[in-house]
Amino acid sequence: MTDTGEDETMKHVCRSCGYQSPKWLGRCPECGEWNTMTEEQELSHKKRSRAGSLQDPKPIDQITLAPEMRLTTGIKEFDRTLGGGLVPGSLTLIGGDPGIGKSTLVMQVLDRLSIKGVRSIYLSGEESAQQIRLRADRLGASSPLLHVMTGTCVEEIMDKVRPFKPGLLAVDSIQTMFTEDISSAPGSVGQVRESASRFMAYAKQTGVPVFLVGHVTKDGAIAGPKLLEHLVDTVLYFEGDTAHIFRILRAVKNRYGSTNEIGVFEMKDAGLEEVGNPSRVLLGERPEGASGSVVTPCLEGTRPLLLEIQALVGSSAIGIPRRTAVGVDHNRISLLVAVLGKRLEMQLGDQDIFVNVAGGLRVDEPAADLAIVSAMISSFLNRPIERDAVIFGEVGLTGEIRGVSQPDLRVREAKKLGFNRCIMPKSNAEGRSDFVKGIKIEGAASLQELFRALF
After folding, report:
1. Looking at the predicted structure, is the pLDDT value of residue 220 above 60?
2. Helical spans, DSSP H, in 4-149
3. Are 404 and 391 in contact, with CB atoms under 8 Å apart?
């Protein structure tokens, strides 16, 4: 028997987090998930070829910076999320629920860059070339520089891609790819990790930007080991509900820009369309003179968004009142209800409470606390809040209203859309009585002061 220079090793790998163990375990000690350990056969090479000569250590002030040449796609919402465009040699992972629009977005990006003269390859391991052509016709993607390729073997793909020398490569999806060096099935932890490593090496060696489309688990995380997110340069999540037309592209990791930026899109028959002013669209159907409706300015990265917070408070017909929250944290609602009962003596414990963020968006920052409280009070008393007022601030357990970041941006966005009154934390309002002409600034330090300002 001849020595091939390779050792076969058996490992048990967690499908959820990538933890490795020499023996099978019922529960992963790393992430705590049950029945996620799978047996994999992996080949470890005794000798690995060197990618290149190692450079000597160099003082950091003597390292020359090459000019950063970003590829702008022309899709402003997409470029904003990436931090200004695609960086050469970057590896970008795009995840999202099935049918949310990941493949549609990648196809539109490739088509825009192809129109600009960039030769691109759309590599699919899930669809045939005819199916891709049907989608391209629907999206109006017909550039001759946009090429389509189907396959799942990484070695065969690289044999075709390297001599072609594309300017951009998109892989849809990474879970369908496999390498011949590992005997496990496509989609397994080892295959996903090794396939992503091959595409990363290709991107870094050639300077070609690479997109990886990733499936997500039932919990919303990208399927495969957590190492997959550590390998790539940028991780983008495509969020939204198929029942709503809006889609949010959010960067959760970005080595070349901010991780707080988002892009807002609207799903239409001809593909994804940018929403340049989402605040105006989200408030377009706001009811007139209805109680329980409050507008709050929230920050997504450097972009302020005006969102409508709706609350419905009514007597419970059953013994156990219901608490339903859509777009906000359910636990936050319970906390704010308890604060209202303690600090304002407004007992809502026997009331059904429903809170919703109109438009299908989600609000995570504490600056929305004051708007949620105001909406619940308005609905409980059945007294509407002025239509031209916006409210923001964080509420503490003692009923105090705490300051939030970037109040100037929030107020300017409200003024831009015609609001002329803003209730904010007193610490944010100090010295800002006239920093934006045409809008009245009011500060509140406690829930009692908020109540007096509203009613």
Report:
1. no
2. 76-82, 102-115, 129-139
3. no
Task: State the Cα–Cα distance between residues 135 and 103, nearest whole angstrom.
Answer: 9
User: In terms of pLDDT, which residue wins out, 105 or 244?
Assistant: 105
Residue 419 tokens read as: 């609001």
d(CA 157, CA 149): 9
Give me the mean pLDDT over the 263-273 stretch: 88
C-alpha–C-alpha distance, residues 140 and 1, integer Å: 58
Q: Contact, 179 vs 193, CB < 8 A?
A: no
280-454: CATH, from 3.30.230.10, 3.10.20.340, 1.10.3210.10, 3.40.50.10070: 3.30.230.10
Contact 70, 84 (CB under 8 A): yes
What whole-number distance in Å separates Cα of residue 35 and Cα of residue 37?
6
b/e map 229-257, b = 16+ CB within 10 Å: bebbbbbbbbbbeeeebbbbbbbeebebb
What is the DSSP-derived secondary structure letter of residue 72?
Answer: -
Q: Is there a contact between 23 and 12 (Cβ–Cβ < 8 Å)?
A: yes
What CATH code is assigned to 72-276?
3.40.50.300
Predicted confidence (pLDDT) per residue in 146-197, tens digit: 999 999 999 999 999 999 999 999 999 898 999 988 877 787 777 888 899 9
Domains in the chain: boundaries? 6-42, 72-276, 280-454
Which pair of structure tokens corresponds to residue 169? 């490569």
Q: What is the DSSP letter of 88?
A: T
- What's at 56, amino acid-wise? D
Same topology, domains 72-276 and 280-454? Answer is no
What share of the chain has pLDDT > 70, as a percent?
Answer: 89
**What digits encode the pLDDT tens for the residues 279-306?**
888 888 888 889 999 999 998 777 888 9
User: pLDDT tens across 345-373, in order?
Assistant: 898 888 999 999 988 788 889 999 999 99
Vertex 118: Cα angle to 117 and 119 (nearest 5): 115
Report the C-alpha gap between 191 and 202 in whole angstroms.
17
Using CA atoms in the order 16, 152, 138, 358, what is the torsion angle rounded to 10 degrees?
10
Q: Read out DSSP for 308-375?
A: EEEEEEEE-SSSS--EEEESS-HHHHHHHHHHHHHHS----TTEEEEEEETTS----SGGGHHHHHHH
Note the Cα 441 to chain centre separation in Å.
33
Residue 370 neighbours by CB distance under 10 Å: 27
